[in-house]
Task: inverse folding
């Protein structure tokens, strides 16, 4: 009986029936788009004929010579590095501060989780309002202490726009680091600390010599998970600046998206998104090897 | 680390100040939702002294909280957003169900069965988590167009389920790994089939983990922006996408937008508090256990 055979296979020890739905959806939604993207990167949209035409390596040559691409690469790396450093340092400092069983600390940790559930696009809008040169509360504060010239709106000045976006990013995701580091700190064994206390180590020495090394695995995972998202930043820049002023806040993802959907350069947009993908995969996998992160 | 009373006091004060700084933007945003236009555009910004109003909520949700209790009046205005909230709820719920069902099946196999290439399979799942959404959205836009999936629940549910699958698989695997496999083995000796063990023994034991996975999938779908922006055009939109359309040629409807934003935070926040125990494990895709 065929049916009985099939039934026995489905309930057997073979992993295939269990993995099949996952494999199917991953193939359709990641491998197929990937192949399509590669195909698309060798084609260009001809508006006059409203059709895609084979253009050979034209898109790749254009990419190599496109100053704006290289600029967006630099902007993406800058964004990535600054955000990661701030989130790590602030996150660790706040985690150390909140690592206490005192009254109210559980409540404070709960409040911090709030930032994580707000859609980043809405966070972008929040900061767009708060950084408004006329009635934004952050701009007002900076202007009244003389740190900001009222004639230079934060998000419309090339030199400060990226910082304006980064404020929103760091505000939303520092609590992410805090929660991860807190969990790591709470899981540390007490013995090394007791020994260090007896030896009379200072609290900085304890942090440097005991806490940091024991937290290295936790820090590596936090860097990996956050780093992946940082490198593909899109929501904040799309909502807050759309890449401007000039091209001072173009992230790779935003540049690829705009080339595809705003300027109908389908082939070039696909090329850009492919490059973004390759960079992330290479860096993330290198990091996993070097930091020995395991799942 | 017990210090003297004064250092503990200092630490408590510092902790409250830091958290207050982080909470301030949320307070400010919520206050905007309750402000009249002229209070929003005041300089210096009004933080506490303003006359609260429900106008913004009324416009956005068609619900008025007047003296006669709550009345629902579906509005026809540009900023009537109740249907968009409904779209978001449907997409987030269905994509969560789909992702959790598929992920649970796969995670059980990855946790319990020994087969060649298991490690590379986990690696592949993890690497799909690294794909930048834009690299999926560009080709998917053309594919969806061919199949008529733009602006459909089906299209959005599929893409959000895909987005959440790597997280859900790795997270569920870590929860299954916590359940001793001796339980499975003794059930096999008793003659139970794999599927029966899965359904009757392992699934009930992993209830908390499934709940945590579901909540995270829901929140990530709820907050997702790029796919929703790319794969919907007019008749279907999610809350994050629609909130960026409040910018009009005559200015931005900040009050209405804030009302929508503030209201959209509340359900997600309640959900996340329910699974706080597993939150860090979820945020790190199962690699850190609390």
Result:
């Amino acid at each position: 009986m065929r049916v009985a055979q099939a039934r026995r296979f489905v309930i057997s020890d073979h992993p295939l029936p269990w993995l099949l739905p996952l494999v199917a959806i991953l193939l359709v939604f990641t491998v197929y788009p990937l192949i399509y993207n590669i195909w698309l990167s060798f084609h260009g949209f001809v508006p006059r004929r409203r059709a895609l035409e084979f253009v050979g390596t034209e898109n790749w040559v254009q990419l190599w010579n496109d100053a704006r691409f290289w600029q967006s690469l630099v902007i993406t790396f800058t964004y990535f590095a600054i955000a990661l450093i701030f989130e790590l340092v602030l996150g660790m400092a706040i985690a150390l501060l909140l690592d206490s069983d005192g009254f109210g600390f559980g409540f404070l940790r709960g409040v911090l989780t709030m930032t994580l559930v707000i859609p980043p696009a809405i966070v972008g809008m929040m900061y767009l309002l708060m950084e408004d040169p006329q009635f934004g509360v952050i701009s007002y504060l900076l202007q009244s202490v003389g740190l900001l010239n009222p004639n230079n709106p934060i998000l419309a000045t090339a030199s400060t726009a990226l910082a304006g976006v980064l404020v929103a990013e760091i505000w939303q995701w520092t609590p992410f680091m805090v929660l991860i580091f807190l969990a790591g700190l709470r899981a540390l064994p007490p013995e090394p600390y007791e020994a260090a206390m007896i030896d009379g180590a200072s609290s900085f020495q304890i942090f440097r010599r005991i806490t940091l090394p024991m937290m290295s695995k936790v820090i590596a995972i936090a860097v990996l998970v956050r780093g992946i998202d940082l490198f593909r930043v899109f929501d904040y820049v799309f909502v807050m600046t759309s890449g401007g002023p000039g091209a001072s806040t173009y992230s790779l993802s935003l540049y690829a998206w705009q080339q595809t959907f705003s300027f109908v350069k389908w082939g070039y947009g696909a090329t850009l998104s492919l490059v973004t993908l390759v960079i992330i995969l290479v860096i993330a996998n290198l990091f996993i090897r070097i930091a020995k992160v395991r799942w | 680390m017990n210090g003297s009373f004064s250092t503990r006091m200092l630490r408590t004060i510092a902790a409250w100040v830091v958290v207050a700084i982080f909470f301030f933007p949320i307070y400010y945003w919520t206050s905007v939702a309750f402000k009249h236009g002229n209070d929003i555009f005041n300089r210096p910004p009004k933080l506490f002294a303003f006359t609260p109003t429900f106008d913004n909520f009324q416009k956005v949700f068609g619900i008025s909280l007047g003296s006669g209790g709550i009345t629902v009046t579906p509005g026809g205005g540009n900023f009537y957003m109740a249907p968009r909230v409904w779209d978001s709820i449907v997409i987030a719920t269905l994509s969560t169900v789909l992702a959790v069902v598929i992920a649970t099946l796969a995670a059980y196999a990855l946790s319990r069965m020994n087969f060649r290439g298991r490690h590379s399979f986990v690696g592949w799942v993890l690497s799909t988590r690294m794909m930048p959404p834009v690299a999926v959205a560009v080709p998917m836009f053309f594919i969806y167009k061919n199949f008529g999936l733009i602006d459909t629940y089906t299209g959005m549910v599929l893409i959000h389920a895909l987005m959440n699958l790597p997280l859900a698989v790795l997270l569920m695997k870590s929860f299954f790994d916590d359940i001793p496999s001796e339980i499975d083995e003794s059930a096999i000796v008793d003659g139970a089939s794999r599927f029966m063990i899965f359904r009757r023994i392992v699934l009930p034991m992993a209830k908390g983990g499934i709940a945590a996975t579901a909540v995270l999938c829901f929140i990530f779908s709820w907050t997702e922006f790029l796919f929703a922006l790319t794969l919907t055009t007019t008749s279907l939109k999610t809350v994050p996408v629609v909130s960026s359309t409040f910018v009009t040629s005559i200015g931005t409807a900040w009050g209405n937008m804030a009302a929508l934003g503030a209201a959209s935070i509340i359900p997600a926040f309640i959900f996340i508090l329910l699974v706080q125990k597993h939150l860090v494990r979820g945020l790190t895709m199962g690699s850190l256990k609390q």
Summary: The CA atoms of residues 117 and 204 of chain B lie 28 Å apart.
